[in-house]
Amino acid sequence: MALDFSTLPLAFQFTSPGPILVRIGPLTIRWYGLLIATAVLIGVMLSQYLAKRRHVNPELLSDLFFWLLIGAIPGARLYYVFFEWPKYASTPEKIFAIWEGGIAIHGAIIGGVLAALIFAKLKQVSFWQLADLVAPSLILGQAIGRWGNFFNSEAFGDPTDLPWKLYIPPERRPLEYVNFDYFHPTFLYESLWDLMVFALLITLFFRSLSGKPRLKVGTLFLVYWPAYSLGRLWIEGFRTDSLMLGPLRMAQVVSCLGILLGLFGLAWLYLLKRPLPDVIPSSKGDGEMRQ
Questions:
Q1: Three-state DSSP class for 231?
Q2: Distance between CA atoms of 76 and 81, rounded to whole angstroms?
Q3: First-to-last CA distance in the chain?
């Protein structure tokens, strides 16, 4: 029996109102920037709350987020520009136009991890303890930030006639799809997936407070990698604008590495029962999460 989707509510058909939220004189406020700022603010508050529950100084997380921004935002942009260099070679002034879109979460994570390692070393605290406290905020921030792609009419998938579909203006469509109106809303797929990963991480965090199970330091961040990467792996297959390295979609390559590294780290912790390498002596950084 064929299914007829034509009578379903049009609410499933997404249409961006445009990238600009409001203009006030020379000041332009864009949805993308507002969403990033909102994600950062919520992330700081959530990480501080989780830190309190683990009896970690919440001010440490405030200081850490400043470092994360210094590492993550340039990392996200440089990663994107590197793989899209032919587009920017003739217009280098556009390299810094981050408000127009064009950032990569994997670049942000790489930059953020490097910044967090330096921060942890300087403060003489466990990198993995910090990573566990930030992991839920990170995935929640990704869920919020994906809606910036919606407002910019970017990062969409192949053409589709499904009832959940995204209208893309003609000027934003790839040349080969110029005659198609509706596309897979991959921003929505990833946002919903990220929310599920957030629910998993936050559930593990609070269950560990009662010791069921009692998590070892580094567990949440290691769970984040395969949990997020599994979703990104299949969602990326829909995308029409993937960052490429030859015939390979880089997001899928990095996702595969993330799955392997996350599973290896969990096996290291729970099968080999060894603490993760850290920036401080193991006597300070290993063991179970603090109560």
A1: helix
A2: 9
A3: 56
